[in-house]
Design goal:
The protein contains eight helices and 17 strands. α1 packs parallel to α8 and α6 runs parallel beside α7. A hairpin with a 5-residue loop joins β2 and β3. By secondary structure, it is α/β, with parallel strands linked by helices. The strands form three sheets. Strands 13-12-11-14-15-17-16 form a seven-stranded mixed β-sheet, sandwiched between helices. A six-stranded mixed β-sheet has the order 1-5-6-4-3-2, with no helix packed on it. The chain has three domains: 61 residues, Nucleic acid-binding proteins (OB fold (Dihydrolipoamide Acetyltransferase, E2P)), CATH 2.40.50.140; 212 residues, Rossmann fold (3-Layer(aba) Sandwich); 62 residues, no CATH class.
Length: 389
């Protein structure tokens, strides 16, 4: 091994990897360092050595980037929640766009020009409406730590406030700290629910309401450009996208395995007097194959908003076989999204028209992406094959 744990290195950072760590090199041997920027010269200490790379902790920035700023959170650098508070916000957006473009080009051979500029969040701090804090007994200090897991180990960093959380959540956090859990190992979810939406306690809802209108606007723009008459909203949760897009299509169907979320979706639609859609409880794999007896693929858009792990192979296989006119894919995990899009676009079945990133998670490595896929022209069925409904 060229390096050993404890070695001190002077490194020039030439890239930022997906996940937020800077990339330096010692004789072509990669060393990852957190909390740095491209072009910086830093001093770092090796903390882990693997066969093909090493990791080091940042000791000192000898030559800072002009885009470096002072983090506003006193826990940054210990707490594992944020990776980019040391980077000015416009530079964060440029970094995320480059990372997404590089990832899609590497995984799916997507030209960088298909990836649009990242839409910024109007409120880069105080935006999260859901956080999960953990409790852990701190034996050396004989106290209970309540906070987030550190970036460098499995220990919990004790925190009194989170600067990316909405103020109401920090008030909830103060209440938790005033009345702590009885022991370590307990997770506590703090959440503010969106107004006028019925959301069960454990059901998913977007955690950034400040940029949510732009996310809906992006999906609606893609849907309108595709010209479909019908929308199939898979992984629909409490019906958010289907309800918001109801006026854009003649009819829609939402599919979700969480029955409580489906019940909420029906209540949300009824409260808004939405009458051109319905919601079905069941797994995507169970429901999807039978949908094409009702929705003709040439006039249908499928909206995918899966969990971070992405879609199951059977779902992608069914979509490739059915070939709906358009697939709109929404994801907070670009790596699994790129993997799935690569499968959907294999052999020209679908073509990727555009990827629109949105910064739903400022100060962190995470980013939301919306992809617009159209069925390949050579495989698209002619209009006269449309069914009558």
């Amino acid at each position: 091994m060229p390096l050993q744990i404890g070695d001190r290195l002077d490194l020039t950072i030439d890239d930022i990897a997906f996940g937020g760590e800077g990339v330096g090199r010692v004789n072509d041997f990669v060393v990852f360092v957190p909390f740095v920027l491209v072009g910086e010269v830093v001093e770092a200490e090796v903390v882990e050595v693997k066969k093909h790379f090493a990791r080091a902790s940042l000791l000192r920035v000898a030559k800072p980037s002009p885009h470096r700023v002072e983090p506003i959170c006193r826990y940054f650098g210990q707490c594992g929640g944020c990776q980019y508070q040391h980077i000015e916000y416009p530079a964060q957006l440029e970094l995320k766009r480059k990372q997404i473009a590089d990832l899609f080009e590497r995984v799916g051979k997507v030209p960088a020009g298909r990836v649009a500029e990242v839409i910024p969040c109007p409120q880069p701090f105080g935006y999260r409406n859901r956080i999960m804090v953990r409790s852990q007994w701190n034996k050396p200090e004989q106290k209970l730590n309540i906070g987030f897991v550190r970036w460098d180990c499995g220990l919990v960093e004790d925190i009194e406030e989170c600067r990316i959380a909405e103020p109401a959540l920090n008030e909830q956090l103060r209440q938790v700290r005033a009345h702590p859990p009885p022991k370590g190992g307990i997770k506590v979810v703090l959440r503010t629910l969106p107004e006028n939406w019925d959301v069960p306690p454990d059901s998913f809802f977007q955690n950034n309401l400040f940029l949510l209108p732009k996310l809906v606007e992006t999906v609606r723009e893609f849907l309108s450009a595709g010209g479909s008459r019908h929308l199939v909203d898979l992984y629909c949760g409490v019906g958010f996208f289907g309800i918001e897009l109801a006026e854009t299509v003649e009819s829609f169907l939402g599919v979700e395995y969480d029955r409580r979320a489906i019940q909420s979706a029906r209540r949300n639609a009824a409260a808004r007097h939405i009458g051109n859609g319905e919601f079905v409880a069941g797994t995507v794999e169970e429901v999807l194959s039978a949908l094409w007896q009702r929705f003709a693929p040439p006039t249908t858009t499928v909206l995918l908003d899966p969990p971070r792990k992405g879609c199951l192979p059977q779902t992608l296989k069914t979509l490739r076989e059915a070939r709906p006119a358009q697939v709109i894919y929404v994801s907070c995990h670009p790596a699994t999204m790129a993997r799935d899009l690569n499968i959907l676009c294999g052999d020209g079945v679908f073509e990727l028209a555009r990827v629109q990133p949105l910064d739903m998670f400022p100060q962190t490595q995470h980013v939301e992406c919306v992809a617009d896929l159209r069925v390949g022209e050579k495989l698209a069925k002619p209009p006269n094959m449309d069914s009558t409904e």
